[in-house]
Specification:
Length: about 375
């Protein structure tokens, strides 16, 4: 279940909003070795060199690409102060690190009256994606496709709880906010650590529109999705439910396809079976599914696979011409399943195409 270790902080490697990356010495004598660890100061305090820390090394031992850190569970000799202020929304409930946050929807929130009366998105485009790695690519395509005279829209990221629960884990979110590419991060369900906390995907979308005044929302799970190689056993099924939530709230659901030409697994080559299941079986509401116009036989394969979704959704074919350059100018490194743009160009072009299409919808937002 959990691999427990004690260690001593050797050095602080780097930090970003909500997270501190550490070198921690674990073990004694000849068995002593350094490992990379991650701490969330809001949960455990800020570890300093020389501190003894209690670690959960499970993900590190498993060699997980996204979550390959030892996680700091506590700094037992220097506990943080008790939290102060309002908030009774508990996330990561009934785990050893359950935390109380102030939810935008709860009674003590300054946004409670707004959220109590909010019941629609005013036609706001809601771009839904399977993987967290689609986020910067969607934004790159959106911003590159706006008319020169059009001010940059306010875009909010609604983070589902299918991957990482703490939004602080995502260095991309921190960098995208710093670059002005996101007006805020909203964490929903069991996810936490966003600029705004909400209970459900529905209230997360409503908060994007009515609390953050977003003109576009992007919905995806946090880093570290879970898959099992089966039709239904993957965390990305939530993308289909997000389409339903956007539609019932009178948003305009835009479905970004998960596409790959570099994945070694046949089920993810072309249009991933994740997209075909989430949009073709789980999404009951109608969405605009963006089909990127990719070149050659691979592009033909993607177009043919996407046709499976045509009975349920509107397929929108979008050119990817001119999108590679803005992708390469992204303020964050593009990486999906360990592959960058040079290893899996189609992956990022497909996401950017969804952003390009959303740019055409902005004129209709109320």
């Amino acid at each position: 279940m959990i691999r427990w270790r004690k260690g001593v902080v050797a050095a602080i490697r780097r930090e970003w909003s909500g997270a501190v990356e550490l070198d921690v010495a674990v073990g004694d004598g000849e068995q002593r070795e350094n490992c990379r660890a991650l701490a969330y100061p809001a949960l455990v305090g800020r570890p300093e060199p020389g501190d003894t820390v209690l670690l959960n090394t499970t993900a590190l031992a498993m060699g997980l690409g996204t979550g390959g850190y030892a996680m700091v569970v506590a700094v037992p000799d220097r506990l943080p102060q008790d939290p102060s202020g309002p908030g009774h929304l508990v996330k990561a409930r009934y785990t050893p690190l359950q935390a109380t946050v102030l939810g935008a929807d709860e009674q003590e929130s300054p946004f409670h009256e707004i959220m109590r009366d909010a019941d629609g998105l005013d036609g706001m485009p809601v771009i839904v994606a399977d993987l967290h790695s689609a986020l910067p690519a969607i934004l790159a395509g959106l911003y590159a496709s706006l008319p020169p005279s059009r001010p940059r829209p306010r875009v909010a990221y609604v983070m589902l709880d299918g991957g990482a629960l703490p939004a602080w884990f995502s260095m991309s979110c921190a960098r995208l906010r710093e670059a002005g590419w996101l007006c805020g991060v909203i964490t929903v369900g069991q996810a936490f650590g966003g600029d705004v906390e909400t209970v459900t995907t529905h209230t997360g979308l409503l908060a994007a529109r009515h609390v953050l005044d977003a003109e576009v929302a992007i919905v995806a799970q946090g880093p570290g999705n879970l898959g099992s190689g089966t039709r239904w056993g993957f965390s990305g099924v939530a993308a289909g439910e997000a389409v339903n939530a956007a539609a019932v709230l009178d948003g305009r659901p835009v479905a970004a396809l998960r596409v790959s030409e570099g994945d070694a697994r046949e089920r993810h080559i072309g249009v991933s079976h994740h997209s075909l299941t989430a949009y073709g079986r789980v999404a009951l509401a109608r969405a605009q599914v963006v089909v990127p116009e990719l070149p050659g036989e691979f592009g033909e394969r993607v177009t043919k696979q996407a046709e499976e979704l045509s009975d349920r959704h509107e397929l929108v074919h979008v050119s990817v011409d001119g999108l590679e350059e803005p992708l390469r100018r992204s303020p964050v490194r593009l990486s999906s399943m360990g592959r960058g743009i040079d290893e899996d160009r189609a992956c990022f072009l497909a996401s950017a195409a969804a952003g390009r299409h959303a740019a055409t919808l902005l004129a209709d937002v109320g």
